TrEMBL record, chain A:
Matching CDD domains: proteasome_beta_type_4 (cd03760)
Taxonomic placement: Eukaryota, Fungi, Dikarya, Ascomycota, Saccharomycotina
Chief localization: cytoplasm
Protein name: Proteasome subunit beta
Subcellular location: Cytoplasm; Nucleus
Species whose genome carries this gene: Nadsonia fulvescens var. elongata DSM 6958
GO cellular component, one term: cytoplasm
UniProtKB/TrEMBL annotation, chain B:
Gene Ontology MF term list: hydrolase activity
Organism: Nadsonia fulvescens var. elongata DSM 6958
Keywords: Cytoplasm, Hydrolase, Nucleus, Proteasome
Subcellular location: Cytoplasm; Nucleus
Keyword field contains Cytoplasm: yes
CDD domains reported for this sequence: proteasome_alpha_type_1
Protein name listed in UniProt: Proteasome subunit alpha type
Cited InterPro entries: Ntn_hydrolases_N (IPR029055), Proteasome_alpha (IPR050115), Proteasome_alpha-type (IPR023332), Proteasome_alpha1 (IPR035144), Proteasome_asu_N (IPR000426), Proteasome_sua/b (IPR001353)
UniProtKB/TrEMBL annotation, chain C:
Alphabetic keyword roster: Cytoplasm, Nucleus, Proteasome
Protein's UniProt name: Proteasome subunit beta
A Pfam family it matches: Proteasome
InterPro entries: Ntn_hydrolases_N (IPR029055), Proteasome_bsu_CS (IPR016050), Proteasome_sua/b (IPR001353), Proteasome_suB-type (IPR023333)
Summary of the function given for this chain in its UniProt record: Component of the proteasome, a multicatalytic proteinase complex which is characterized by its ability to cleave peptides with Arg, Phe, Tyr, Leu, and Glu adjacent to the leaving group at neutral or slightly basic pH. The proteasome has an ATP-dependent proteolytic activity.
Listed Gene3D superfamilies: Glutamine Phosphoribosylpyrophosphate, subunit 1, domain 1 (3.60.20.10)
Length: 260, 292, 244
């Protein structure tokens, strides 16, 4: 029986030769940080309207170019009048989801009538994102916080760098190029949202999600729409892109029947 | 001579379940001059009596701002209050930084109550020798809390702490029905009327010894001292004394506050010990110049 | 013929195979925008456009970046917006603590020294911002302090910072400090004497500087917010800029 614990579980010297103690003394693995996102969600888009905010994100979680998971919910309700939309790394999304859940639970411990408003949740998230980027260990996401606060719509953005801004129309990722121009045709500056009804906002969101599905290769035609008014947040799931027309594809060289 | 063997530290119970060090700390509050807090539906008010240790000395601060929506009045060891308010200020700032929200009053109070409680359960610690009245205005309206070294914190419509504060409480108990609907000015006058009842017979409220602070809806925490308190002092009912604005036949009752309190503490079996503790108190009056 | 066909095989692959591409997280970005501060006899202004960008995208058309941090001090930290916001927020809280500890207003010169320490404190992971401080000095005169990202600073009569600083600064040298201007009264033989500009003149100068910068710089535009500091306090003026 080997009496010295240090030798337990090691190859026997008499069979394999003397043990190389450099193996035992090897430095531990360095601390590793996220260097790139792995499984990702694409754009989140949002727009203010006269009585609230509307936000949408599709249900796809991509693994590179592979459409890996097709029912990933990326709109997270927090409290009764805030929804957080997350794009980027899905594991970081799930971490953020847990943070927000914890935040909500601890807010309710005291049961003293206080509740977190959208701007409180947003400030908290932006601190978390900025602190993680400052540790060079970012949460690889771009997030939109949408809600209604004191009867007024609230809409703000924060990303992996801790950069924040707010605007009556917001979008992350490809949405910034494809959806924002469409949204700004209707709501360009603060105050324009007063002329947009919930019904029209809903149609606008559908239009943007359809364009995103046409042109963003990492998107899917199934998405969720969150509508937040002073009555609370409503989450519509499994909305499908309708009245799509792919006839134009036939005319694209090398894609459809057109070869030369 | 009798010697209490259960008061050498704050963590040992007496056989009857009392923590003497904590009770002594509560006594320290009574050494300080009175502070009063009251709330209406829209505002919270603090008033306090300032003392100067000698004729040529300055008056000690009794009211401290913590944030735009939060402030405290103290009675007891002023240095302990300073430490606690500085802690409250860090809490208030971190609430602004992390949540972009003025700290809810109840949570501000719990944060110092937790610190106070730890001092009653950890060996080698000394309970805070100060009581605080914390007022603030947050998303759920105006609030008044009483903080004690025992770690307890209770919300009040109106209350008072410090020397002869029972007299003020008597006034508050008689008049609190009117506080809810009071205007800010009326609330302040109620406050200083109650404060006047804590004075010794030969003393009067004046611009030097009166401190007032207000906070409320659309009103940031604001301190008033010296000449700024004169407008309210001039509104004091000059006739009634000890009975307050409402004339009453029971006015003599309020003038014997110490008796009431002593009976409260001596209710338990250990009469001798309790008497010992409260007797020691007045003797300390002059030596503890940090007590306000 | 496509690009691939036109290039020799080695041109495409040689660099890629011999040198590994360093791919690591870059904690900074540039959010554009520009700021401008001018001091007058008894006032100071600090102006900034309200556009926020990354790359070619306009993130927001109204995202203020000039702030009043208390004690008649206005400040803006232009560059990487996340750092800028954190710096301004920290400064505001530091000023609060100064009040708690000393029970008096913080002098502008002391505030400037404080900002230097806050910036230099992150010398090895800097706040990526050009900071400008505006207010009144102890004599009630307008004052502008400008800082580099790691805290070196000086007091100036005027300073432009951010994306279009290089477009605006020469204009300011000429119009505020009368550089390369001769005095018309001497028939152009003597340099123009240094005189204070009135608030009206300064505001017009600021608006001209920003509308010109908007024409020539893609990251500047949408709106102009001017914070004006006088002995009576701080007030804000907003005027639109071109949104293209």
């Amino acid at each position: 029986m080997e009496q010295r614990p240090v030798n337990w579980g090691r190859p026997r010297d008499d069979i394999y030769g003397a043990y190389d103690h450099n193996i035992h003394n090897a430095a531990k693995m360095p601390t590793v940080h996220t260097q790139q996102p792995i499984v990702t969600g694409t754009s989140v888009i949002a727009v203010k309207f006269d009585k609230g905010v509307m936000m949408a994100a599709d249900n796809l979680a991509s693994y590179g170019s592979l459409a890996r998971f097709t029912d990933q919910e990326r709109l997270i309700p927090v409290g009764k009048d805030t929804v957080v939309g997350v794009s980027g790394d899905i594991s970081d999304l799930q971490y953020v989801e847990r943070l927000l859940e914890q935040l909500e639970i601890e807010e309710n411990y005291d049961n003293d009538g206080h509740e977190l408003k959208s701007s409180n949740i947003f400030e908290y998230l932006s601190r978390v994102f900025y602190q993680r980027r400052s540790k060079m260990d970012p949460l690889w996401n771009a997030v939109i916080v949408a809600g209604v606060e004191d009867g007024k719509p609230f809409l703000s953005y924060v990303d992996l760098l801790g950069v924040t801004y707010s605007s009556p129309t917001l979008a992350t990722g490809f949405g910034a190029y494809l959806a924002v121009p469409l949204l700004r045709q209707v709501v360009d500056k603060e105050g324009d949202e007063d002329n947009l009804t919930e019904e029209d906002a809903r149609k606008l969101i559908d239009k943007c999600m359809k364009v995103l599905f046409y042109r963003d290769a990492r998107s899917i035609d199934k998405y969720s729409v969150a509508t937040i008014t002073s009555e609370g947040a409503k989450l519509e799931k499994n909305v499908k892109c309708v009245e799509m027309n792919w006839r134009f594809a036939e005319d694209i060289k090398g894609y459809g029947r057109t070869v030369a | 001579m009798f010697r209490n063997s259960y008061d050498n530290d704050s963590v040992t119970y007496s056989p009857t379940g009392r923590l003497f060090q904590v009770e002594y700390a509560l006594e320290a509050i009574k050494q300080g001059s009175a502070a009063i807090g009251l709330v209406s539906k829209t505002h919270a008010v603090l008033v306090a009596l300032k003392r100067n240790s000698e004729e040529l000395g300055s008056y000690q601060k009794k009211l401290i701002r913590v944030d735009d929506h939060l402030g405290v009045a103290l009675a007891g060891l002023a240095p302990d209050a300073r430490v606690l308010t500085n802690f409250l200020r860090t809490q208030a700032m971190s609430s602004k930084l992390v949540y972009n929200r003025p700290i809810p009053v109840s949570r501000a109070v719990s944060s110092i109550a937790d610190k106070a409680q730890a001092n009653t359960q950890e060996y080698g610690k000394r309970p805070y020798g100060v009581g605080l009245l914390v007022v603030g205005y947050d998303a759920t309206g105006p609030h008044l809390y009483e903080f004690l070294p025992s770690g307890s914190s209770l919300e009040y419509v109106a209350t008072s702490i410090g020397a002869r504060s029972q007299a003020a409480r008597t006034y508050l108990e008689k008049n609190f029905d009117n506080f809810g609907s009071s205007t800010l000015d009326e609330l302040i006058v109620h406050g200083i009327t109650a404060l006047r009842d804590t004075l010794a017979q030969d003393k009067e409220l004046n611009s030097k010894n009166t401190s007032i602070a207000v906070v409320g809806i659309d009103t940031k925490f604001q301190l008033y001292d010296d000449d700024d308190v004169v407008p309210w002092l001039s509104k004091l009912d000059t006739l009634s004394r000890a009975s307050g604005a409402i004339p009453t036949e029971e006015s003599t009752e309020a003038e014997q506050p110490e008796t009431t309190e002593t009976t409260e503490t001596t209710e338990t079996a250990e009469t001798t010990e309790a008497a010992d503790a409260s007797e020691a108190a007045p003797a300390a009056d002059d030596s503890m110049d940090t007590t306000e | 013929m496509s690009l691939q066909e036109a290039l020799p095989d080695s041109a495409l692959h040689s660099t890629a195979s011999s040198v590994p591409i360093e791919h690591r997280f870059n904690p900074y970005s540039d959010n554009g925008g520009t700021i401008l501060g001018i001091a007058g006899k008894d006032f100071a202004v600090l102006a900034g456009d309200t556009r926020n960008t990354t790359g070619y995208s306009i993130n927001s058309r109204y995202e203020p970046k000039v702030f009043h941090v208390g004690d008649n001090v206005v400040v803006s930290a232009n560059g990487f917006a996340a750092d800028g916001n954190v710096l301004v927020k920290r400064l505001g809280q530091q000023i609060q603590w100064y009040h708690y500890n000393h029970n008096k207003e913080l002098k502008l010169s002391s505030c400037a020294r404080l900002v230097q320490h806050m910036l230099y404190g992150k010398r090895f992971f800097p706040y990526y911002v050009h900071t400008i401080l505006a207010g009144l000095d102890e004599d009630g005169k307008g004052a502008i302090y400008s800082f580099d990202p790691v805290g070196s600073y000086e007091r100036e009569q005027c300073r432009a910072g951010g994306a279009a600083a290089s477009l605006i600064m020469p204009f300011l040298d000429n119009q505020v400090n009368f550089k390369n201007q001769m005095d018309p009264a001497t028939n152009g033989t003597e340099p123009h004497p240094i005189t204070y500009l009135s608030l009206e003149e300064v505001l017009q100068l600021v608006k001209d500087a920003f509308s010109s910068a908007t024409e020539r710089h893609i990251q500047v535009g949408d709106g102009l917010e001017i914070l004006i500091v006088t002995k009576d306090g701080v007030r804000t003026e907003y005027s639109p800029l071109k949104r293209d």
